[in-house]
Amino acid sequence: MAKAVKECSRCGATRNIEVDHILAKKDWPMLSITIDSKHTLNSIKDIEALLETPKNKRYLCRACHDYRHARELALAELRKALLRGEPVKVSMWIFRLGLIEWGNTPEKVKEQGYTPYWNYPETHYAPWYPKMKSLVNEHVAKEQVKLG
User: Fold this and answer.
1) Which of 54, 96, 141, 148 minimizes the number of CB atoms within 10 Å of its CB?
2) pLDDT-derived band of residue 66, with 50, 70 and 90 as boundaries?
3) DSSP letter string over the chain?
């Protein structure tokens, strides 16, 4: 790690510092990394060694680490909803992702800690899902009439 003083690489905090793997350890079984046209890391030993190098680690405070994983989860759920063709869930995850970003800038995280999207009642699924589903269905029906 480059810094002698443990400092969050995102917000600059110096308390509650954790080591974050840039390429996550949980993803290593699926990794096959091409170095150049002749070399590929695909053995478990090679990949484990790569994941443990200082270049794959950084310091994050607990709040920024929570933010990072919440953001990754929201992006993964957004991808799933897009692949499944679920427009209501796509809009929900885009909204939640926006709140994760808005509520957790480096300055806000350093000042108040990580704020999960769930702290905002507007992101809760049950209150708005029926209305969104109705709006999407209306739009689809209108498009079908145009095409029909």
Assistant:
1) 148
2) very high
3) ---SS---TTT---SSEEEEESS-GGGGGG--EEEETTEEE-SHHHHHHHHTSGGGEEEEEHHHHHHHHHHHHHHHHHHHHHHHT-HHHHHHHHHHHHHHHHHT-HHHHHHH----GGGSGGG-HHHHHHHHHHHHHHHHHHHHHHH-
Q: Which two tokens stand for residue 98?
A: 């926006």
Of residues 136, 95, 113, the one with CA closest to residue 16: 113
Q: Give dist(CA 115, CA 9) in Å, integer.
A: 19
In the chain, domain spans:
17-147
Q: Assess contact for 20 and 59: CB atoms under 8 A.
A: yes
Buried b / exposed e along 111-130 (16+ C-beta atoms within 10 A): eebbbebeeeeebeeeeeee
Residue 53 has pLDDT above 80, yes or no: no
